[in-house]
Write the structure tokens for this entry.
Amino acid sequence: MELQSWLLYHLVAVPDCNQVMQSAATGGGVYPAAGTGSRARDLGLRAQKKLLGRFASTGTGRSLLIDDATTSLLDNLYKLMEKTAKQSPNLDKKQPEKVLKNIVKLSIKIGLLHRNQQLVPGDEEKIAEIRSSLRSTAMSVVSFYELDYSFDKPYLTKALERCRSAIQNLIKPHLTDKSQDRCDLVFDFLTHPDFLDSIFRQDSEQRATLGLLVSDINKALDAGHL
């Protein structure tokens, strides 16, 4: 799996899915039509196309395409974030769109660093730390969902903060302050107490959607993507 594919699996931290980015050269991965009822699809594709347009002349960006499995993942995450933001007076209702866009942008930018061979040998250890932190976080989410009354908010918050730190350590030497701010925006939302309480509360109205994300995590674990 290419680095930008792996990153889009894992930057979401909680969920995962199959085959995130595909190569146009092999005939895989075409942009689904916007406006097909998928809010996450439309938002993610707009952000992705804007970024890829900057690299189209070099050919570097032409093989980075979003697939249907990723669309399902982003849709479910967006549904969780959107509903929580609407219900919580402490969350900005516009944040779910920004989080979604920033996940796509960060994944592609780091993938381009890798493709352009701009990552240095020491970055491999940082990538390994990201992988370890996110795998541990994902497995905790599965456990909290499957075992009644097991949710430990301080533990999950700390795990997500480790993910944030690991990603920031990788991107700080290579990307701008704006990209670092994008990373913080993603994890500020994912670690917000209102968001975590909303989706993990035992009587949560969002439990069914969370179950879909957990299913994605289990599939990713079985496939060796996490």
Summary: The radius of gyration is 17 Å.
